Every structure is written in structure tokens, then in C-alpha cells.
Amino acid sequence: MQFQNQQGPMHENMHTGLVNQQQNHGGHELFDVHEVLSGAIGTMDLYTILRPHVKDPELLAILDRQSQYMRMEYNTLVDCFKTGQNPAVRMQDYNMTQGNDFVYGLKPSQPKKPIQSASELTDANISGYMLGSVKAGAGSKAMAALEVTNPVVRRVIADSIPNCIEMAYELSVYQNKHHYYQVPQLAGQDMQQILNAYAPAAPINGQMQNLNNTSH
């Protein structure tokens, strides 16, 4: 049940009484958002550490663009998490600037192994670290969004997930173009068998309802 006062909506706690919007957070939410924010700091710190070692101007431009976006996104989440209300700066979309064409197939390459000093860092290493960190962030945000009770925080985290996916895709396209991330394909017959392994669901009661237009 939600109540209203001059400071905004109030929320019921059956043990302590009413809580304000700033305290409109469940226990699971606090821990999970803590993990999201800590992970975001880790990713931004990683980008800062890696930046001096980048050699390719294209990768440097991606790193700088993603880093700038991450800081805006982080500040937006911190804002609504601390206040429980709409952030001053709304979440914006991240859009990659390069093409999205993948080259399929495997090209012979040297076996990978751990480096022994920072002087061995290559753009392949760096873009791989960036990709792994962004993918981890997308997963933690998806898990956290399912535990958040504050509607504003939930929406901000949920809206940030597609942007993580866009950044990860941008990095994977970059890696694929330079043969750092190679993508094999199945044989044509096997691919078709999997593609044709599913059929549409049958309508319920003879007709498929438009759920968006169904009144509740």
C-alpha cells in the first residue's frame, strides 16, 4: 500500500511503519545494486588502466566513447539509488558507430597464453578484457533488475542492459574484423536442421489475442 505526504509517496513497512522514497529499497535490492555499482567502477577503472597501452586509434576511440558513456550511466544509477526518485540526467542510449558485419570461419593463429608483463599487452588482449568486463556487467544488471523493488531503480538498471549489449557487440565486431574473435559456422545441413527445429505456437481457443490491447 502506498501513502502520500509532502515529501512524496510513502511506503509501508509492517514492522517500522511508513518509509519514504529514499528508503524504498528491499534488502536483496541493496546488495545486488551494490554489486552492479562496484562492478561498474571496476570496468571504468580497467578502461583507465588499459588506455595507455592501446595502439589502434579505432580501438582507442571505442574505449573513450564507452568510458564516457559508462560514467554518465553510473552517475544516473547512483542518483536514483540514493534518492529513490527519477534521476536528474535520464538514461541515454549507446549506439555503436561502426558496421555490424561478421566474417565467419577460422584462420590459423598462435595458441593463447597468459602474459608475463604489461609490455606484452596487445590490442587483441585489451579488446578482449574490455569485452569480458562489459559482458559480465550485462549479466549482473539482468540479475539485479529482477530483485529491485524500487520502480525507478529497476527501470534504470533494466534500460541500461541493452546498452551493455550494444557495447559488447561493438567490441566483438571490432575483434572479429581483426581476427581476434573468430566465429565458426556449422555445416549447412546441420544449421538448417537447427533452424527448422521449432514451429510457431498454436493459438489458444482458436485465436491469437493481441496482449498489448487486452484490458485488465
Automatic annotation (TrEMBL):
Signal peptide per UniProt: none
Q: Where in the cell is it found?
A: Spore coat
* One Pfam family matching this protein: Coat_F
Alphabetized InterPro entries for the sequence: Ferritin-like, Spore_coat_CotF-like
The family database entries (Gene3D superfamilies) matched by this protein are listed as: 1.20.1260.10
Q: Which domain of life is it from?
A: Bacteria
Keywords, sorted A to Z: Capsid protein, Sporulation, Virion
Task: Give the family this protein belongs to, as stated in its UniProt record.
Answer: Belongs to the CotF family.
Q: What is the official name of this protein in its record? A: Spore coat protein
Organism, scientific name: Cytobacillus mangrovibacter
From which lineage does this chain's organism come?
Bacteria, Bacillati, Bacillota, Bacilli, Bacillales
